[in-house]
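Handout, page 2. Input:
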Amino acid sequence: MIAHVETRKQHKRKTLNMASVLQALCMLFILAASCGGNKQTPKQRYLFVSYGHSVQIDCSLSESDVNVTLYLKRFSTQPTKVVIDNVKWRQRKGVFTMTVTQPLDGGEYICKAINITGHERITKELTVIPIAAPTNDKLKVEVKPPSLSLQYEDNANISCSALGKRKLKWYKIGLGEQMTAVDKKDLINDDHYDTDGGSRIYHSRLILSIKDATKKHAGRYKCVAKSNNQKREEFVVISVRDPKKPSIRNFPPVVIASEGITITLKCKTKGSPRPKITWYKDDELLGICEGGNSRKCQSFTKIKSDFKKNSITLYQLSYTRNNGKYTCEVENFMGKFSSSARMTIFSKYAFH
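Output:
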């Protein structure tokens, strides 16, 4: 009698195990059906869609005199009509496409058809279940650029980034490999989502911001990324040039041109910090291009001209307007230097 009872228990346990296996196989079948481009198969009731991916719901019918509408029902709420905005939702020939699936897009989708007499009927019901896409959670960190050479008083940003939600921190490495955490005022948090192939991917990014670079900013820096029990680090080397008096290279002493053409004079400079450039014609101020990080240029002349960084462009040269001495003057806190060019304009009729 006891043996008979044990046999019944074993039979019940086997039955439960078999039911669990069948349930798991059923779920795998549903998942497999939903992985082929996120389109439902005939008579399919459930569709699993990874976050950020698109999904198609086919409400099309063979009848040509019906109007098909898609509704969404969440939990116990009344169904609401899906709005076709050609951004989130698109519709073509009865096939509705959701371009990017988010967690709140889950629910029961209902296809309703209305014919010319106003008769309405439900043609299809499909439950969409958004899920987190499987990811390779191996921690990787990237620093850009890996090295940087700056002029005195330059500005620069160095980016440390990693995929996923990570804890990032910048350190400066001193003597004896001693690490000092970078001050928060010199950091910019730029965590954001990027779209890659329809998927929205979270990026952690912490930017080291160098402003008005001096020798104190030079050295080795390390970005450390942490997530769970993982830790990765990358390095960057920053060099800052010593302050240096400005100079001018290859500025032509003589320029000969004909009327009506356009010409550009370049004032190639060296100096740290980047020098301010001032242009003169016969000692009359033409324009100023600020030094340092600004590089903004301002014109003070009615002569048809354009100032960019270290050059001046003169348009439609005229003998009466453009003949004369052009001077490029460069200056920073270390000193000042200038070079001049004598420009001679020939009339276009001079050789006729």
